[in-house]
Amino acid sequence: ISEGIMVFNRDGTVTFTNGTMADIFSKVPRKNNFSEKIQIVPFEEFWEDLAECMETGEEKKHTIENTSYAYEYTIVPRFDANDDACIGATGFFRDITEEHKLDMTRRDYVANISHELRTPLQTLRGLIEPLADGMVKKDEDRMRYYDIILNETLRLSRLIDDMLELSKLQSGTIAFQMYPFDLNELLNSILARFTPVMKDAGIFFSVHSTTDKLPTVVGNPDRVNQILVILLDNAKKYTPEGGSITITSDYNEEIGKNR
After folding, report:
1. Cα distance between residue 184 and residue 181, in whole Å
2. 228: how many CB neighbours lie within 10 A of its CB?
3. How far apart are CA 11 and CA 171, in angstroms?
4. 205 pairs with which residues across the strands?
5. In degrees rounded to 5, what are phi and psi of residue 9?
6. 107 vs 139, which has greater pLDDT?
């Protein structure tokens, strides 16, 4: 079985260990090579909980997390059948490193999408208000505003679809589709959407390219868009009024030929 099992006497001596225990803690560096107990279970917290469990007769459960590993253990006391005295305990150990990483990814994913939802809502408000107030006089400008509003509405729909993909993320089967798309179109869309938002914040915003036109690239435009939106949101947050934010793009034709 994947769960490690270890049985202890009242004095903490190990009386049984299953085969899983042989390498379950392989990810954990040993801090104290002179402690026999730490060589068996490399967590001081466990030995403290084991002593308390046998002292009080209460089950103990603990999760230990680190950047490179995560473990969960449960300590169940064992009692004498005659006088109910605690005569030892059984420890159950689970390596939950992958579950922990997946949960962290899920939380980051939710945080990023929740963060990104604010931007299209702000953009929509920044476009709808001048339209409603009659400030946009030219038909050409109104049509441009309507196109942006439509694109932002579609983007909100895609973000909601991303939220629904969390079930795939939790099962580790989330898809990442890649296909050719136009970077110039994406950057122009970013410029049109963020210009009114940045203007309201008193920030000058521009998109600059060192070449006339960027080539078609292969990737996922929705994910590239998400990254740019998150970066721009953070830049807006930390840029004082009167400041400027610029996206600069470049293409090296020689490198492009070699790739």
Report:
1. 9
2. 16
3. 42
4. 245
5. -80, 175
6. 139
**Inter-residue contact 73 to 93 (CB < 8 Å):** yes
As a whole number of Å, the end-to-end CA separation of the chain is 47
- Per the structure block, which two tokens stand in for 205? 């915003």
* Residue 250 DSSP symbol: -
CA distances from 192 to 9, 68, 222, 244 (A): 71, 42, 17, 16
Length of the chain: 259
- Indicate the residue type of 231: L
DSSP output for 123-161: HHHHHHHHHHTT----HHHHHHHHHHHHHHHHHHHHHHH
What letters, b where the CB count within 10 A reaches 16 and e where it falls short, cover 171-201? eeeeeeeeeebebbebbebbebbbbbbbeeb
CB neighbours of 219 closer than 8 A, spacing ≥ 6?
A: 178, 179, 181
Q: Quick one: tokens of 102?
A: 């997946």
Render pLDDT for 34-73 as a digit per residue (tens, 0 to 9).
678 888 889 999 999 999 999 999 999 999 988 889 999 9
Please write the tens of the pLDDT for every residue from 147-200: 888 888 877 877 777 666 655 655 555 556 788 999 999 999 899 888 888 888
Q: Which residue has the tokens 């009024």?
A: 241
Place of tokens 């895609």: 158
Answer whether 232's CB lies under 8 Å from 194's CB. Answer: yes
Pairing of strands 204-209, 216-219: unpaired
CA angle 30, 33, 39 (to 5 degrees): 65
The predicted pLDDT at position 123 comes to 81
Query: Cβ–Cβ contacts within 10 Å for residue 25, how many?
Result: 19
